[in-house]
Amino acid sequence: MKKYVFLLFFAFFTLNLTAQSAHPTFPFNINLTAPDGKETNSKKVLKQSGKPTVLAFWLTTCQPCKVELATYAKAYPNWQKEQPFNLFAISIDFTERFPQVQEWAKQNNYPFPIFWDGARAFKDLLPGNLNGLPQVFVFDHKGGLRYQHKGFRPGDENELFRQVQQAAK
Known about the structure:
Layout lengths: L1 H21 L8 E3 L5 E3 H4 L7 E6 L4 H20 L3 E6 L6 H11 L5 E3 L18 E5 L5 E6 L5 H12 L2
Parallel strand pairs: 3-4, 4-5
Antiparallel strand pairs: 1-2, 3-6, 6-7
């Protein structure tokens, strides 16, 4: 009996280590598309720069997402003066909506990069599977996830920036 308990424990421990080592980490390895249609990889654009990084996920059909991005765009220049950080807005629209992603990015000329995750790959990597948008994730300067938030109401941007400041420490 002890032999079976040991084997069961050993199998569980081995499987758990394998699962942990297979879990992708920031900046991941996801193909992204810029509004101009150029493809890149998240490892290249989200690289750790010694600063916290915010990933803001959105859809072109999501009104709170649009309000959130506009709010961030307005606050971004002042935020950067106080605490430099990276901010990327990543659309997870379906393929047929990519022209709307392009148009929205062009119309709004955000002061931070916009990308499209056409394969919706981030859904499989981030906690909560991006169920419900908008969602933001704050990663510290070492790539560790420090904060996540779903939805947007006026004032949420203040908490986001507070979290960015904490992640910078």
